[in-house]
Amino acid sequence: MISGALANGQLKPNGPIVEMTSGNTGAGLAVIAAVMGHPLTLTMSAGCSAQRAVMMRALGANLMLAPQVEGSPGKVSWLDVCEALRLAERVSGEQGAFYVDQFNNTDNTRGHVETTGPEIWRQTGGRVDAFVAHVGSAGAYTGVSRYLKSQSPDVKCFVAEPAGAEAVKGLPITKPVHMLQGSGFGNI
Fold first, then answer.
1. For residue 19, what are the contacts with CB-CB under 8 A and spacing of at least 6?
2. CA 37 to CA 139: how far, in whole Å?
3. Nearest Cα residue to 172 out of 162, 184, 183, 158
4. Which of 23, 50, 101, 106 is 20 to 30 Å from 7 at the Cα level?
5. What 3-state class would DSSP assign to 109?
6. Which residues does the UniProt record annotate as the domain Tryptophan synthase beta chain-like PALP (predicted)?
7. What angle do CA 77, 159, 150 make, to 5 degrees?
8. For residues 85-96, average pLDDT
């Protein structure tokens, strides 16, 4: 997503980056931003675990916590995610920053079609019967699945989500009924 933004001019060298996260995307962006010299601001629901906040800060990100709208600590609802998304959008505008927008950024899926999928195929010698992943933004699941299916239509791809996850049912995500932070929100 960062390479794509640099290539199309959305992100300037050493320019600021902003994204909403509940963990994995934020950690990856923090490493890339540090290596490439981009200041990074991450927004996250205050309902996410304290360990995630510590990790983001340890990786060098400026972390801004959005108030938790509903639920309890450790259980982040869709409304909580929306609050963190609104904060990221506002901060990116104020900073004139590149807003990654992992849920809608087509480079999220493309990156996994071009890198993660081929890596799995190569490391297994093309012997892949099935691929199973949990869904955060759905970029990894969708990209890897597309690549593996392009290599062999017989590969079975499965989403592993808690029972009741709306993303798996193809429904709009309104209130996840599970406590896995950062999952159950993406569009498959």
1. 25, 26, 29, 40, 41, 42, 43, 88, 99, 100, 101, 102
2. 25
3. 184
4. 23
5. helix
6. 6-170
7. 135
8. 97
Going from the C-alpha of 105 to that of each of 146, 155, 167, 170, the distances in angstroms are 16, 26, 18, 19
Q: Could you tell me the CA-to-CA distances from 4 to 46, 71, 76, 82, 174 in Å, in that order?
A: 30, 36, 30, 25, 30
Can you give the pTM of this predicted structure? 0.84
Across 40-97, the runs of DSSP E, i.e. the strands, are 40-45, 62-66
Residues sharing a CB contact under 8 Å with residue 82, sequence separation 6 or more, in sequence order: 69
Return phi, psi of residue 180, to 5°. Answer: -80, 110
Higher pLDDT, 100 or 159: 100
- CA dist., res. 19 & res. 2, Å (int): 11
DSSP state of 181: T
Strands 62-66 and 40-45: parallel
CA nearest neighbour of 49 among 72, 20, 25: 72
Stronger pLDDT, 24 or 74, i.e. the higher one: 24
Residue 132 to residues 110, 166, 175, Cα–Cα distance (Å): 18, 17, 23
60 three-class SS: coil
Does the pLDDT at position 188 exceed 60?
no
Alpha carbon distance 1, 79 (integer Å): 25
Compute the distance between CA of residue 168 and CA of residue 41 in angstroms, rounded to an integer.
30
